[in-house]
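Figure S7 source data.
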Amino acid sequence: MSIFNKIFGTKGIPNNKGIPFTNPIQVEFHSHLIFGVDDGCETIDQSIELLRNFEQLGMRKVITTPHVMSDFYKNSKENIFPLRDQIRERLVQENIQIEFDAAAEYMIDDGFEKKIAAGNLLTFGKDNKHILFELPFMTEPPNLSTCIFELQIAGYIPVLAHPERYLYYANNKEKYHELKERGVLMQLNMLSVLGYYSKPVAEAAEYLAINNLIDLVGSDTHHMRHMQILPEAIQHKIYRKVCESDLLNNYL
Ligand SMILES: [Fe+2]
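Tokens for the predicted fe (ii) ion complex:
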């Protein structure tokens, strides 16, 4: 039974018409639903169950973003796309009406510049030019500036995953504006507005929202526990405020 059945009962399964909260976003971006490749879903059944829940949440499309790191998660198109295709087949079998695709969440680490040079990156967006990247939580990596420059020179549009979660930026908010001025787009984690990660992260999320710095939203769903609190995030006033912007989600 899905979380929505549990919350609302089997009689009133919410859908686009009867859903008790109105999420204007129909494309979910940022999750870890490719099974067995990172710290997200472990089995295809878990992937399918989460996608069923996204469908019931009113999403017409999910672009999932497995971690790519030089040490822990050595993922690439070669292993991601066949697994994505297996999930697509199961979606058809289970009659789950959701479009499903995969990009990636790249860690800016020692090996990332080599990946840029090699090309063949997992991207998203209408022209497949957007690329999602994340940073270590403790310190800004020394090669960040170089990586942003090299991505842009290669024709990519860099998108920073959950900028509110890096406290070295939350404590130095000028940095958000500097990154934006350099052409970096910003993706807010929906759960951040609830204080799910921490209070300072929630405050940074509010700062980004009030200053119209958010370009894209995503759930960063790894497992059912994240899914279970998404409805609460969707109702949050800061999330609502962010959705007033013309977000990139609407064009994916
Ligand atoms: Fe993530």
